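[job 4471] stage=fold_predict status=RUNNING
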Amino acid sequence: MKRAIVLSGGGGKGAYQIGVWKALRKKKIHYDIVTGTSVGALNGALMTQKEYHKAVLLWQKIDFSAIFKEADSQKLMAQKDWFHIFQTYLQNVLNGGMEISNLEKLVQKNVNTKKIKNSKIDFGIVTVNFRTLKPLILTKNEMTEDTICDYLIASASCFPFFQKKEVKNEFFIDGGFYDNMPINLAIDLGAEEIIAVDLNAVGMVRPVKNKKIPITYIKPRNEIGSFLVFDKKQSHRAIKLGYLDTLKVLGYFDGNQYTFPKNSLSKNQKIKEIKMQKIIEEIFNTKNESLLEEFLNKTSFNRVSKQEKEVNRTLEYLAKHCNLDETKVYRLKTMEKKIRQTIREVPLITKESLDKKRQEFKFVPTPLERIKYFYTYIKEAKTHPKMKKELSKYALVFPKDFLAAIYLTAMEAKK
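[job 4471] inference complete, writing structure tokens
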């Protein structure tokens, strides 16, 4: 069965695809076809060459100076945030876009056109003719060794931010203007099974013309930066996340935004669900049963989700707000210990101070402060009926934070 790897466009997010490649190599998953658009075309060329280590080294060193001429790259690197970087791009739009001569040199240095032509792996890319606005879909057999690099640059020319690319007296722009996820091209090349890596970037995506072909989609579950930012730290993180996300999709790890050993979350679900259900029933033990029903509807607690269950979603919600590193593999006990430590350091807001500051419109608590508040008063509510009623009302306003506090309480509950 012929397997294709399809790589979407996504500019500075492209390092994520190298992490996916790392996971495929680890699990010895071969491929016969590679298709790509924009940065996916550039990464796809390296996958066709089978030069993984070259690709890793390239992305580990990449920054604005590797893409743009010196004056532009220095200006971009001087900016402190994405908004000001975007402003710099916009300033160049009126001049036809950023000059990417350094990117051209980088591609010529790393892409071995002879290896691509001689590779047993089929390869195809997408670009768009600027004059006609029609797509130009090319396979390696339709490109010469002399034009491969030119068309790769054309596919990645993110107009209007980047300048158009001239090839054979015609100007071309980013293939994402026609198809940012060239699955149909892979099908045309004979793919019978597809792994599609979607960078969640802006671009047109064509409907898949053959629904019978199995497609495994891999996409970032965490933020991996902007497509217009080229940064070593961003790339390093994206490679790690691409690797972990792929292994989760393939069933070797558990988790969504975080990563756990296989089967550890199903055990956690069974243990915590019973404890959390008991705490919820204790808190909502009022005459008005509609409050309990409304809370359960807002949180989907006890309902099976297609992706994961509410207990483990709540664990990851806690981890996210505790700023735990998403690029690591966690044992459940280790993560819960780190969460406890973080919550312990959060200042406790008393009910009196919260009410006073809310009335004065001077204070909006953070999610962690709300979680700590709920967590502290859940214990008190067990012996104070008025507190139960108070908490149950707050729970409807901040259901995720309240459920997170219940999870914390369940962590300490005896079996």
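[job 4471] summary: The CA atoms of residues 340 and 408 lie 8 Å apart.
[job 4471] exit 0
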